[in-house]
């Protein structure tokens, strides 16, 4: 007697891998669409789509780990889509908005940012943390690509916000783009926020902060992004301090063990 076979797109054991990859693919579609809207000079929508893509990029990995849906395919797909969404899209948005006025130099800066982004992603894929260096999980090596995409667009974000000062911020665009490009490939430690331990008593305040940030992004999108970007830049030297402190404590502990032995 022959058993009846049912048609399945994927094996039932593989279904948990689908959701994270769907989030990744939606993110890359948003990143590519942001390029289209920047061509139409609809820069506000282009940045909004990049912001949503960055949120999805932060969710897909966490969702994959939560449902035990991590895979080598998902890791490679995430890196490829990150390059499109955060290496190509912001560079083109910036080029269509301002860098095209600088001629060949503007295009060279556009290429520089994209090249630095792909180098940063390649290095990230090869980075492995030893078991005796778990504290390094709390830090990235260089600025991550989603953060770099938002930071490089800060002059445009300022231009779209209601903040106005008596200074033409567009002048800073090429210099900031070069600066962020080198931050991407630098070995400067930056906070990863992957292992944030929040006491149970403070959980309500964490939810309150997330709620306030979400409301601010809905009603004051560009003002919130601008303030958040500036805060992130200020956190870089603080991250360097805590990285060196953690490394010093680890080295001191190893020296004590060697003395005991």
- The total count of strands amounts to 2
- State the distance separating the first and last CA atoms: 70 Å
If classified by CATH, what would the architecture be?
Up-down Bundle
What gross morphology would you assign?
A: globular
Using the coordinates above, name the CATH class: Mainly Alpha
DSSP helical segment count: 9
- Could you report the average pLDDT, rounded to the nearest whole number? 83
Structure classification: mainly alpha
Low-pLDDT stretches are 255-261
The SSE order reads: HHHHEHHHEHH
Total separate domains: 1
- Strands side by side in the biggest sheet: 1-2
Write the CATH fold name.
Four Helix Bundle (Hemerythrin (Met), subunit A)
